[in-house]
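Methods — Computational structure assignment.
A single polypeptide chain was analysed. Its primary sequence is given first, followed by the predicted tertiary structure written as structure tokens.
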Amino acid sequence: MAIIKKVRGFSPTYGEKCWFADNAALLGEVILGNGCTVWFGAVVRGDVNTIKIGDNTNIQDNATIHGTYEVAATRIGNNVSIGHNAIVHGCTIEDHVLIGMGSIVMDNAVIKEGAMVAAGAVVLSGTVVESQTIYAGVPAKWVKNIAGENREMMVRIAGNYQKYASWFQDELPKKE
């Protein structure tokens, strides 16, 4: 069963049809929408600031979601895929975004709707990744604009992770 732990008086909350891997950790002030999945070894640690995640978002294996105490909360939208080993820290990620494997998104960065952060990229604090663009590199820079069909791809990827989760489906603990 996933680690779901109350911290500083805050318990994680989640919507319907969510799935959490046995060794995923959801700690503190974490709010997830419907249809979210949190994969093996992923940590969503709302101990020092709020983490709010929309519907149909997947946090893949070994990803870390965190914030900065009294400075930077984390907001993640709908139909977002956070790739394996990514670090998402105190930033805003809008709807229909892909955060690539092993990438880092730092405090006060904003990833706008339909954007992609390439695998291994480092999005520095305060960077704004514009809608429908790809950013890559260290530090992450604009690579190219991408077409509007990106939104449908993000919905498809998010849907795939719901399907994958069904292969592992267990009963979640009762909500508090």
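Note: The longest helix spans residues 150-166.
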